[in-house]
User: Which sequence fits this backbone?
């Protein structure tokens, strides 16, 4: 049985690359003037692929852990998922700055894993490269547009970004350092990777160049929306279609969205409730902060499922020796 397409399939990759280059072109022309439309772009990305990409975790977990439809098995999944969300939500209340830091580190690893797991690196090398990729992705918009990111960090965790050393005094050095560290990490990882049919180090060089331009020239919320919606979330959806097909349960994109509908809508209902409870409507930075906090709370249990997914997929494949 042929595998379905992935983000690395030529037509999908070309489409995502074209979208990214379009954003880069608009950003190079308009810069931070994209700000008034940034929240709308972010909302579209989150609605179309952002929330849906994690909305069938329950179906994936059922296959990965052998859960069935009994009350006890359902309680194991939903109970564990909700407990992790509740604990992290409570942490945001009592220690917002630490919670923001944890979110950034989790996102680094999660984004890096989704981008580079197909390299099939040994475990330690893989995790270091994932964090390098994530540091590159998260760090660039922070140092390129600190004045835009600062109010969001302040609203999320009372973190004063503009007080950080070097962020205002040497942003170019930080930006270049982030790019160089990731280029070096990828170069060191190439000999350790176990090549697969879609393994193409040259393509990653293109990706690094394009994403550097995206996060260096485009309003950070728009750049994040393009990456999160077009690279990360869409890529994960396609990986899930591959996952089900390999188990003999072919799922179309239409079926995926049908299955994901309920748990795509519920977070938005909760988000609307947060906006009402905190009187955030019309306060853009506060609205963005609450959206990212909700994403953070959902990311923690989602990462557990994704980690198991990649572990199960890779454990029987040959890996290069460290």
Assistant:
């Amino acid at each position: 049985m042929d595998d379905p397409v992935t983000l690395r399939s030529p037509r999908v990759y070309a489409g995502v690359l074209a979208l990214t280059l379009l954003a880069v072109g608009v950003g190079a022309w308009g810069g931070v003037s994209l700000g008034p439309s940034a929240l709308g772009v972010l909302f579209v990305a989150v609605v179309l692929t952002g929330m849906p990409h994690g909305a069938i975790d329950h179906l994936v977990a059922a296959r990965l852990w052998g859960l069935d439809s009994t009350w006890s098995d359902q309680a194991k999944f939903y109970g564990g998922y909700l407990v992790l969300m509740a604990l992290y939500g409570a942490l945001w209340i009592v220690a917002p700055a630490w919670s923001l830091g944890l979110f950034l580190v989790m996102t680094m690893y999660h984004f890096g894993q989704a981008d580079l797991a197909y390299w099939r690196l040994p475990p330690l090398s893989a995790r270091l490269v994932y964090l390098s990729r994530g540091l590159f992705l998260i760090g660039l918009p922070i140092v390129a547009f600190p004045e835009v990111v600062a109010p969001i960090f302040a609203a999320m965790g009372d973190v004063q970004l503009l007080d950080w050393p070097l962020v205002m005094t040497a942003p170019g050095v930080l930006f270049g350092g982030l790019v160089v560290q990731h280029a070096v990490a990828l170069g060191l990882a190439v000999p350790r990777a176990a090549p697969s049919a879609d393994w193409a180090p040259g393509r990653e060089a293109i990706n690094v160049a394009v994403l550097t331009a995206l996060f260096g020239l485009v309003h950070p919320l728009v750049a994040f929306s393009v990456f999160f919606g077009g690279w990360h979330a869409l890529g994960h959806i396609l990986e899930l279609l591959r996952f089900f097909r390999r188990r003999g349960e072919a799922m179309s994109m239409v079926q995926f969205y049908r299955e994901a509908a309920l748990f795509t809508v519920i977070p938005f209902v909760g988000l609307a409730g947060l906006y009402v409870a905190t009187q955030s409507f019309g306060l853009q930075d506060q609205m963005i902060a609450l959206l990212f906090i909700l994403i953070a709370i959902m990311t923690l249990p989602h990462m557990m499922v994704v980690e198991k997914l990649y572990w199960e997929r890779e454990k029987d494949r040959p890996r290069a020796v460290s």
About this structure: The two ends are 32 Å apart (CA to CA). The mean pLDDT is 90. The longest helix spans residues 284-314.
